[in-house]
Design goal:
CATH topology of the largest domain: Growth Hormone, Chain: A
Radius of gyration: 27 Å
Number of strands: 7
Number of domains: 2
CATH architecture of the largest domain: Up-down Bundle
Number of helices: 10
Length: 369
């Protein structure tokens, strides 16, 4: 009996973690696509908490079939939660319906999450009757600790390892597995033959949907991301801190000009057509006086460093950049290296050849921290 109660509380723990990940995934996607982090968080959390109350009330008539209802809710939550980021991305990229879609998604997910607790309470009490206060304490302790796990797993595990789209799909699979494992082991006798067959078939269908979505998620993201930018995307990656996207236009008819643009979390950082205006105005007035050692805060693209190294009396340039991935890109991508003129390379070796390398010595150095 103690083992059975522990299994129910473990299911509460896992479901709570999954529920919080769904919330964080919606907030993160909205912050990336819209940019208003406070507004997106307020909408998602407000709507979901409200819907959780509605879901808890809606679950009251289902308590006499708690096991089957809980299994069905977990399958719906796994499918909709796992596909939520994909669907919202599509709504933003192609349908221009992101706002209404976000509210509807948050409401449905919140309602399903809210319906879990009353049903789990019934299942917990079926194992062994206990005082209501004690049962609520056990249930909510597992729920809140699970929420902590979900809150930590999202930024430190799911996003770095799986990414935004696939991370939600993985959580959906875990959610379905936890719900089905609980119902088909401890509460199998509470299910009729038809219920077992229906839930088994639904489990297979959900697994196939989530699996297929996982396989095509990368291609979908590439296609959807391209919809967000005017020019072809030539590089895209999600670093620990942000999404980095580089686009390059096809040569314009007038003069064959190519426009290279850098976007961080969807915000334009520079356009190669006119970035020199900004960087010249930024750097040269500041270097009108003494300039032996230069400190640059940010500017991981190397364009400000390029301007600073125009002065022969500049000995060192130190760049302090939050995201090492931006600096790595500025050093490795040929188009960006051409634009910043290899500013992160030591110019003292710029004119050296293999036959003359013994006589070369570094004159200036650009370093990053």
């Amino acid at each position: 009996m103690r083992l059975a109660r522990s299994a129910v509380l473990l299911a509460v723990f896992v479901c709570a973690a999954c529920g919080l990940v769904y919330e964080l995934a919606l907030v993160a996607l909205g912050s990336y696509l819209i940019g208003d982090t406070v507004g997106q968080a307020s909408i998602v959390l407000g709507v979901m908490v409200f819907a959780m109350g509605i879901g808890a009330l809606a679950a009251k008539p289902l308590q006499h079939k708690a096991a089957a209802a809980f299994a069905a809710i977990e399958l719906c939550l796994a499918l909709l939660g796992g596909l939520s980021v994909l669907g919202l991305y599509a709504a933003f990229a192609w349908l221009d319906l992101y706002g209404p879609a976000l509210i509807a998604t948050a409401f449905v997910l919140g309602g399903l999450i809210g319906a879990e607790i009353p049903l789990l309470m019934v299942l917990l009490q079926r194992i062994r009757e206990q005082a209501a206060g004690s049962a609520v304490a056990d249930l909510f302790a597992a729920d809140y600790v699970g929420a902590l796990l979900g809150g930590l797993a999202f930024p430190f595990l799911l996003m770095p390892v799986f990414g935004q789209l696939r991370g939600a799909l993985v959580v959906g699979a875990v959610n379905a597995l936890a719900g089905m494992a609980l119902v088909f082991t401890l509460f199998r006798r509470d299910l009729g033959r038809r219920s077992r067959a229906a839930l088994g078939a639904a489990s297979v269908a959900v697994a196939l949907c989530l699996g297929y979505a996982y396989v095509v998620a990368h291609d979908f993201e590439v296609t959807a991301r391209q919809q967000l930018y005017r020019d072809p995307v030539v590089h895209a990656e999600r670093s620990r801190y942000q999404e980095i996207v580089l686009t390059r236009s096809l040569p314009l008819v007038s003069g064959g000009v190519t426009d290279l643009r850098l976007f961080l979390n969807g915000d334009l950082q520079f356009s190669s057509v006119d970035e020199y205006r900004y960087h010249e105005a930024l750097v040269h007035p500041a270097l009108a006086g003494s300039r032996a050692n230069v400190l640059v805060l940010g500017a991981g693209d190397g364009l400000a460093v390029r301007e600073a190294l125009r002065y022969p009396d500049v000995a060192t340039v130190t760049v302090v950049e939050l995201d090492p991935a931006v600096v790595a890109l500025a050093r490795s991508l040929p188009d960006l290296r051409a634009l910043n003129r290899g500013s992160f390379d030591d110019p003292g070796y710029a004119s050296c050849t293999p036959t003359r390398s013994a006589g070369c010595a570094p004159r200036r150095r650009a370093t990053t921290r």
